[in-house]
Design goal:
Length: 441
């Protein structure tokens, strides 16, 4: 603007100075004729003299635009988008539960997706403090789940929850958290509640659940079995095609498994019995639950790595311990605590520790094999956080007191709203980290 006005002023000055001068073919001749070359030279000198003066004005305009853009980006990113180095160095899975008076972010009356057995408030749970905690990592902050941000990240993608009823519990929690943005529509191809698909039309995002409590091909050999909870035949080297033939199209797989391996099982390999866990069959060695658990995860990971067209990311959601006290689940055990543990008050040990370590070991093997094919495996390590939440289970508030149910005191699943909502905090942070890693690699 300054340069244009300066040139305009110069033009007017020359017009006034030489207004009596006609063009070469005019009728009059000026008294003092200045050659055109000389005039152009004078103009050029003046332009070069004035231009540096105008630089600050041009620079200010550009800086203003850049600063405006940076402010716009900052206002959208907020504190949640941390530098990749900071995010990657922080172990979000090691920490403590701290009070969060803002929670919960939905209720049992605002979310229809809550399974009856996890609807603790409906069935009269008298306390509500178990809903008012958040997970605080030791070395950083873990942002509370942002449903808008999550749906933007997964826009046009799909996510499969593969495993047992605790995995379904996780998906229902996520549906409730996302309800602040949009409700999904049922696009299931079957009426089977164990194989549901939900779609968020505005974001073209699909979630699906695949029921496979043992992760591999399984048959019920005896509905009662030694402990009246059934005896199952596990084919340790065979895929469960109910899910392995369906997940190739998915962008994310969340794999889990655990509690069903406490039940009596007979182990098969190459169609022959190789052992069992508490089957009480003659001449069948008891290889313990750990043998079946390891082989099941190994086969499940092998199934994923063998998919020809799968290009997605697999999350292993680690074992979430139960909290039965004063007896096991079918012998009077219950969970009546109303506050989380501090990390100094309990530790992972015994069976829980063994199951967790098996998962980590098989995960590392699968991750190494998957890397050869360009596949990604991520550890959604919920074990430590959930070990500290004995207060978050339905206990006897998963049904009416007069009902005859198998799991009378439920210390396995999680109340909704409740601590399982934090799994979405973890997952979203991991998705953001995955985006940062992809962008910088």
């Amino acid at each position: 603007m300054v340069l244009s006005s300066s040139l305009l002023s110069l033009s007017r000055l020359f017009q006034m100075k030489f207004k009596d001068i006609e063009l070469p073919h005019g009728h009059t001749t000026p008294k003092h004729m200045i050659p055109r070359v000389t005039l152009l030279a004078i103009l050029a000198i003046l332009i070069f003299a004035i231009t540096p003066v105008s630089y600050p004005f041009f620079s200010y305009s550009s800086l203003w635009k850049i600063n405006k853009y940076n402010k716009h980006q900052s206002s959208h990113d907020g504190k949640e988008n941390l530098p990749s180095a900071y995010v990657e160095k922080c172990d979000i899975f090691s920490g403590e539960w701290v009070p969060n008076p803002k929670a919960p972010y939905y209720t049992n009356t605002t979310c229809w997706a809550i399974h009856e057995h996890q609807n603790c408030m409906k069935y009269g749970r008298p306390d509500s403090e178990f809903m008012k905690w958040r997970w605080k990592p030791n070395d950083c902050e873990l942002p509370i789940f942002n449903p808008f941000q999550f749906l933007q990240i997964v826009k046009g993608k799909s996510m499969a929850f593969v495993g047992d009823s605790v995995g379904r519990n996780q998906m229902q929690s996520m549906i409730c958290l996302l309800s602040r943005v949009e409700w999904p529509i049922d696009v299931s191809s079957t009426n089977d509640e164990y194989f549901k698909r939900w779609k968020y039309p505005s974001y073209n995002f699909t979630m699906a659940t695949f029921w496979t409590p043992h992760l591999i091909r399984t048959e019920m050999a005896d509905p009662h079995g030694p402990s009246n909870t059934g005896l199952f035949n596990l084919y340790l080297d065979e895929f469960d095609k109910k899910w392995t033939t369906q997940i190739e199209e998915f962008d994310y797989i969340i794999l889990d498994g655990g509690h069903w391996f406490f039940r009596p099982m007979v182990f098969y390999e190459r169609q022959k019995i190789v052992g069992c866990h508490f089957c009480l069959l003659k001449n069948v060695p008891d290889l313990t639950m750990f043998h079946g658990y390891r082989k099941a995860f190994r086969t499940a990971f092998k199934a994923i790595n063998s998919l020809e067209n799968f290009k997605g990311v697999t999350f292993l959601r680690t074992f979430a311990p139960s909290h039965f006290e004063n007896g096991i689940w079918n012998q009077g055990g219950n969970c009546v605590r109303t506050k989380p543990f501090r990390s100094s008050e309990t530790q992972l040990e015994g069976t829980n520790l063994e199951l967790y370590m098996i998962q980590l070991e098989e995960f590392k093997i699968a991750e190494k094999e998957g890397r050869k094919k360009g596949l990604k495996f991520k550890l959604l390590d919920t074990t430590q956080a959930m070990l500290l939440r004995p207060d978050g289970h339905p206990s006897r508030y998963g049904h009416w007191s007069h009902e005859n149910v198998t799991l009378y005191n439920d210390c396995v699943h999680w109340c909704l709203p409740g601590p399982i909502d934090t799994w979405s905090d973890f997952l979203l942070q991991m998705l953001k980290m995955e985006g940062i890693t992809s962008a910088t690699s």
